[in-house]
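Changelog excerpt

This revision adds worked examples to the README so contributors can see how folded entries look when concatenated. The first example is reproduced verbatim below.
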Amino acid sequence: MKAEELFAKIAEKSPLIHCITNYVTINQCANILLACGASPIMADCALETAEITAHSDGLVLNLGMLSPDKLDAMLLSAEAAAKKHIPVVLDPVGAGISEFRRNAAKQLLDTGVITAIRGNFSEISAVCGIMSGEKGVDSGDAISEDISRETVISAYNQTGAVIIMTGETDFIYDGRTVFTEKSGVPQMKKITGTGCMLTSLICAALTVSVENPAEVCALAVRTFGKCGEDAFRIAEKNGLGTASAAAYLIDNISRFTERSSRLEKL
């Protein structure tokens, strides 16, 4: 499958994606889902999350700004997602920084419904019990490709979920093939929520194609990275900064989606 085909399918289906995410990036996640043709809904009250998930096509569980109440809402939503058999993507934001987040990730993984996990090296390592240094929610020092490859394989073996480990080189593994991607630019780290946005985009992609999940996730990662590269190129050309690049990133995803939809109809 080509990226154009994938995004045309997302736009055609317009899947409803329920995101229980952090308040720092909730707006960016909603906008990236709208840009790719999906429909976002954000609810984290345990009194309604299960019901909302039952009406959704995909579920994102983001551990940023976690609280006991939000964790309860996530567990209830995971149960509802299991009954409907929809993809569930876990974003273990800052999992290596506190015991509460690590335990929350374990509880969510123990439900057996997590389809995919998207995080950086530190976060993926924390989820599978390999402790590493962590600075906030960013990965630490550069990691060799061999270690990265071993880490995604180990994480998959322990969780059974598709692993999407993002960094200078992105690694995607579903138990069969390790895909690598080298798209994007380092400046994307200067935009709040690029990782959270990518997680939401991956969830939307998984709602339209689950036969080859690693390939679908790799396509989403590649498209997001290429759109990010172009966003910073446009911003720099016009003498603008990171805020403008963030807007161009969402613009580029929406324009790519529109072009893909037109190609699908030809």
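The second example, added in the same revision:
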Amino acid sequence: MTFKEFRKKPIVQFLSNRYVLIIVLFLVWMLFFDENSFLNHHELNKEIDKLEKSTDYYEKNIKKDKKDIQILNNPDSLERFAREEYRMKKKNEDIYIIEFDTLKKN
């Protein structure tokens, strides 16, 4: 096959068209090399998803902490919390910590 025969094929004629070449070059440039390329948008979308997940996590923690603050405004529940979490005690009081062993002995 000679070069002339090759150029006469319809697909080659279509691809060698000046406008098609310009459009293909433009698309390649926009998809890969431009500052606002598809690859940059993909990375930025991943970052946005990651940040949205972290904001959801922190919003849930804020709600939980607000609920805990509401509960701890009551003096009785504050005392109970201090006794359970920080093992605090009153004067002349003994505390016995009982831990359950999860392993069964045969």
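Reviewer comment on example two: The chain is about 70% helix and 0% strand. The first helix runs from residue 3 to 7.
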